[in-house]
């Protein structure tokens, strides 16, 4: 066996939407520094500090609709208040 996969056996990539909770600015800076240390130590990929709360197929309800069910949502660029979620789209 060569380890190669025949084209007809390749799985198609599914598109999904991941919902993350991100730490506030000060905690984010501390966690980002620690992540960079561990990335160098273990040769791991660099990533943003976050907690994944939900992953849905891309064809599911629009992200803003889902988030509105959780908490009041402010759009990026507006200053969020306590108990709000800021929507930021990243691809």
Report on this structure:
With 91 residues, this protein is of the alpha+beta class. It folds into 2 domains: 44 residues, no CATH class; 31 residues, no CATH class. The strands form 2 sheets. It has a two-stranded antiparallel ribbon. It has a two-stranded parallel sheet with strand order 3-4. The mean pLDDT is 78.
Supply the key terms.
91 residues, alpha+beta, two-stranded antiparallel sheet, two-stranded parallel ribbon
Briefly say what this structure is.
This protein has 91 residues and is of the alpha+beta class. It has two helices and four strands.
**Rough outline:** flat
Using DSSP, what is the number of strands? 4
How much is the radius of gyration in Å? 18 Å
How are the strands of the biggest sheet laid out side by side?
1-2
Q: Distance between the terminal alpha carbons, to the nearest Å?
A: 36 Å
Q: Ranges with pLDDT <50 over ≥5 residues?
A: none
Mean pLDDT: 78
H and E order: EHEHEE
What is the makeup of the main sheet? 2 strands, antiparallel
Percent strand equals 15-25%
Output the number of helix runs: 2
Strand-helix topology:
Elements: E1 16-21, H1 25-42, E2 51-57, H2 63-70, E3 73-75, E4 85-87
Parallel strand pairs: 3-4
Antiparallel strand pairs: 1-2
